[in-house]
């Protein structure tokens, strides 16, 4: 009888070891899934270099190709976005312009959000929620933005969408009313 009891005890021990191995395997699998997830995230964030949206790499396939129109009117005068913003030699950044018609091309290897601020960084021009170029909100002047006719609070972080018609207006408050 004592022998049988001992056997039963050791048998009881074995399932615990099995459970421990099972738990280690589960933790390992979760770690691998999290690691793979973080790798995927790294690829998504791999679209910026030096704080600017990077160049499209040779032979890179595009997951996203959309266009947004941007007009800028400062104190009643239109400021044209030039052709070739984001283009150096034969290299194009993910955000670029081909013609001086205000059409921003977004040609991206991954589907993700690109903001108006991202485009201004590529252009090398200042844009915040209260300033465009050297023109900032003050007692008499305001920067406002309309997208498809609708005023927007967030200017710099506005996510560009296909077919958007964006107008940035900086003017005297009395002219904006
Ligand atoms: Zn395009």
Description of the structure:
The protein is of the alpha+beta class and 177 residues long. The chain folds into two domains: 1-44; 52-176, Ferric Hydroxamate Uptake Protein, Chain A, domain 1, CATH 2.170.130. Helix content is 31%, strand content 29%. It is built from three helices and 13 strands, in the order H-E-E-E-E-E-E-E-E-H-E-E-E-E-E-H. The chain has helices at residues 2-44, 116-123, 173-176, and strands at 48-49, 52-53, 64-74, 77-79, 87-88, 91-92, 95-96, 103-108, 131-132, 135-136, 141-147, 150-151, 165-172. The strands form four sheets. Strands 3, 4, 7, 8, 11, 12 and 13 form a seven-stranded mixed sheet that branches. The chain has a two-stranded antiparallel ribbon with strand order 1-2. A two-stranded antiparallel sheet has the order 5-6. Bound molecules: zinc ion. Residues 65, 67, 105, 107 line the site of zinc ion.
Question: Descriptors for this entry?
Answer:
177 residues, alpha+beta, Ferric Hydroxamate Uptake Protein, Chain A, domain 1, seven-stranded mixed beta sheet, two-stranded antiparallel sheet, 3 helices, 13 strands, binds zinc ion
- Overall geometry comes to elongated
Radius of gyration, in angstroms, nearest whole number:
28 Å
Number of strands: 13
Order of helices and strands: HEEEEEEEEHEEEEEH
Total separate domains: 2
Query: Segments where pLDDT lies below 50 for 5+ residues?
Result: 37-42
Could you say which structural class the secondary elements and strand pairing correspond to? alpha+beta
Strand content: 25-35%
Which fold does the CATH topology of the largest domain refer to?
Ferric Hydroxamate Uptake Protein, Chain A, domain 1
């Amino acid at each position: 009888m004592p022998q049988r009891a001992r056997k039963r005890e050791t048998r009881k021990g074995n399932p615990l070891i099995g459970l421990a191995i099972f738990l280690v395997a589960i933790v390992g699998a979760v770690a691998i899934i999290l690691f793979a997830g973080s790798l995927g995230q790294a690829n998504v964030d791999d679209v910026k270099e030096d704080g600017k949206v990077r160049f499209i790499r040779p032979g890179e396939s595009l997951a996203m190709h959309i266009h947004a129109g941007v007009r800028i009117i400062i104190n009643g005068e239109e400021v044209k976005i030039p052709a070739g913003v984001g283009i150096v030699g034969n290299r194009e950044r993910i955000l670029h312009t081909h013609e001086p018609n205000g059409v921003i091309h977004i040609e991206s290897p991954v589907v993700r959000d690109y903001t108006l601020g991202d485009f201004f960084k590529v252009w090398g021009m200042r844009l915040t929620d209260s300033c465009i170029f050297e023109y900032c909100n003050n007692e008499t002047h305001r920067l406002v933005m309309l997208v498809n006719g609708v005023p927007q609070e967030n200017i710099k972080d506005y996510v560009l969408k296909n077919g958007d018609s964006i107008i940035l207006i900086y003017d005297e408050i009395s002219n904006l009313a």
